[in-house]
Amino acid sequence: MARVCQVTGRKPIVGHKVSFSNKKALRRFLPNLKTKRFFLAEEDRWITLKITADTIRTINKRGLFTIVKELRSKGVAI
Fold first, then answer.
1. Whole-prediction pTM value?
2. How does pLDDT run across 10-22, given as a tens digit for each residue?
3. Domain containing 51 — which CATH number?
């Protein structure tokens, strides 16, 4: 469970690697994970999240405090 986004839960998926001759072999598509520190102004402290690059845009759009509040309601310790 190391390659999982803490906010969205996005994880690796399985698909085919297709060669020029159209032979198919299984491969894994890994999420674009980043370890990012955010300053939570409401609590005056830094938090570190392991999130995808797409989730960084979501946090910018909806606000960090809203995301943290939703995570805490689900029972995630931050």
1. 0.83
2. 999 999 999 999 9
3. 2.30.170.40
